[in-house]
Design goal:
Layout (H helix, E strand, L loop, with lengths): L4 H7 L5 E4 L2 E3 L9 H16 L1 H4 E3 L6 E3 L8 H17 L8 H13 L1 H7 L1 H16 L4 E4 L22 E6 L2 E8 L10 E4 L14 E6 L5 E5 L24 E11 L3 E4 L2 H9 L3 H31 L5 H26 L2 E3 L2 E3 L2 H26 L16 H10 L7 H15 L2 H12 L4 H11 L2 H12 L4 H4 L11
Parallel strand pairs: 1-10, 5-8
Antiparallel strand pairs: 1-2, 3-4, 6-7, 7-11, 8-9, 9-12, 10-11, 13-14
Length: 494
């Protein structure tokens, strides 16, 4: 049997401490701030259970069907199978849930593909991360992660902050494990996930070894406090008024570890300054997790293109040359995301016996889409015009006969009725102009790191030697002395 939505909802009843609006939430699964999004996430497992051939493969240890995101790919065909499963899940949320269960699963696959690096770091840590991978895979664990330190004073190193335990660090250790204290961000989907992977992707310096750790624990573990941001779902008026934010607000949270005990068999990096970086950059973790993101973005862009085309059709502007020019430009950008996605797979790279997505092309896609998505949203807002905000205050306006009559007089379109127009424009506002939409612009700009970071990856992975080698080859093919020749005399000179 494959994991179901009901299984997942039951697994979240683990006593986790979630805080929002100044209060401890007793039942996060059913709280008005989270309940719809939690069920959207759980619904992914129902879809999986109903589409086993598309979504799963047989676990080599348990024999149970588990999500294809856990598959360690051995061939191009394996990458394609994983892509189709990731794409199918992304379509269930129209690409708006970036931290779906297949994201960190993809990261963990990339990490264990680099198991020799963990063995060099610490054989016990290597054994721990492999055993955890098998556990998470066989139980289809929904993982989130926190790998960024609280912003605080970025002019200071991690260990030079006013509070030495601002960032999660080892405060104690014994024969059973380590005890950690401090905060990490961004715990996206932590309300609806089972476990959290804690790591440090930011640079550390000698003397900061107590921060140089990585581990995984259940989010219901004693001492973990999940501090949620404002809930867009809670503030959604209705599904009609907020069709995206009412059901796909995966939430973000700061996670604080208040002297949390982590057993040794869940510790993957132990006081390893270099290994913290290597865990993501020298394994295939970073490129594998962001490969999943590009698949999701491919789906999201397809949805956004459909949305803006319907808005233009509804406004009667599609035939305008200027509008078609902009739609064509957007279509080219969306197609670029598609093409990059397929290229990442076709140019896959062998790594420790596995066939992994092309690291360089993943970073290229990231660098381009970080700029592209906010630009596309701005163009789509321009094409939508004032109709995005010239809308009834809520669905309740339709229940008032006087207002309903006015809506029918003013919300006109040649291809749909007034209700259909309002419905579409409410959706467009939720995707392009709402607080939920603004969060998504920020997310697409920064989920892979700041732009200078992703461009740094491009600089690091570009085949400079081959490029400069061609220049050197041409330069070596001629010399100054070969070019100093007598110019033929003209007849006039003679």
């Amino acid at each position: 049997m494959s994991k179901t939505g009901a299984d997942h909802l039951k697994s979240l009843d683990d006593g986790r401490e979630v805080f929002i609006n100044g209060e401890l939430v007793e039942d996060p699964v059913n709280h008005v701030a989270f309940r719809n999004s939690v069920r959207s996430a759980a619904g992914l497992y129902d879809f999986q259970a109903e589409n086993l051939d598309l979504m799963t493969y047989e676990s080599p240890t348990s024999g149970k069907p588990v999500n294809l995101a856990w598959l360690l790919p051995k061939s191009y065909e394996d990458l394609v199978r994983r892509r189709e499963a990731i794409k199918a899940w992304s379509r269930q949320t129209y690409g708006f849930m970036g931290r779906s269960p297949d994201h960190i699963a993809s990261s963990l696959v990339g990490q264990v593909a680099g198991l020799p690096l963990f063995q060099e770091h610490n054989p016990k840590c290597a054994r721990a991360i492999w055993n955890y991978y098998e556990y998470a895979r066989d139980n289809d664990v929904f993982l989130t992660y926190v790998i960024i330190n609280p912003q605080a004073d970025r002019s200071k190193d991690t260990g030079d902050q006013e509070d030495e335990f601002l960032t999660t660090a080892i405060v104690d250790e014994d024969s059973e494990g380590i005890t950690v204290r401090g905060a990490k961000m961004l715990g996206t989907s932590s309300i609806m996930a089972n476990d959290v992977l804690v790591a440090n992707i930011q640079p550390l310096v000698p003397g900061e070894e107590k921060y140089a750790i990585s581990f995984a624990v259940g989010l219901g573990t004693k001492g973990i406090k999940i501090m949620s941001r404002k809930s867009y779902e809670e503030n959604a008026v209705s599904k009609f008024d907020n069709p995206l934010s009412s059901q796909f607000d995966e939430n973000d949270a700061l996670i604080y570890f208040d002297d949390v005990k982590v057993p040794w068999d869940r510790v993957f990096v132990y006081r390893g300054l270099d290994m913290c970086r290597a865990q993501f950059q020298d394994t295939w973790a970073h490129s594998s997790q962001n490969y999943q993101c590009q698949i999701r973005l491919m789906v999201k862009m397809r949805f956004m293109m459909g949305l803006i085309r319907k808005v233009c059709d509804t406004n009667g502007t599609t035939a305008f040359p200027a509008v078609r020019d902009q739609l064509g430009r957007l279509a080219a950008q969306a197609a670029l995301v598609d093409g990059m996605m397929h290229g990442i797979e076709a140019a896959g790279q062998n790594y420790n016996g596995y066939f992994m997505p092309n690291r360089h092309l993943v970073y290229a896609a990231q660098s381009l889409t970080q700029e592209m998505y906010p630009q596309m949203v701005n163009v789509m807002r321009e094409l939508s015009g004032g109709g995005l905000i010239m809308l009834p205050s809520s669905a309740a306006d339709f229940a008032n006969p006087e207002l309903a009559e006015l809506i029918n007089r003013t919300q006109k379109s040649s291809i749909t009725d007034p209700q259909g127009r309002v419905k579409l424009m409410k959706l467009a506002w939720d995707a392009l102009g709402s607080e939920f939409a603004s969060r998504h612009v920020q997310y697409e700009m920064f989920y892979a790191g700041a732009q200078f970071v992703t461009r740094g990856h491009m600089y690091r992975t570009y085949p400079w030697e081959d490029a400069t080698g061609m220049v050197d080859e041409l330069l070596a093919s001629y010399d100054l002395k070969d070019s100093i020749i007598s110019r033929p005399k003209t007849e006039a000179a003679e």
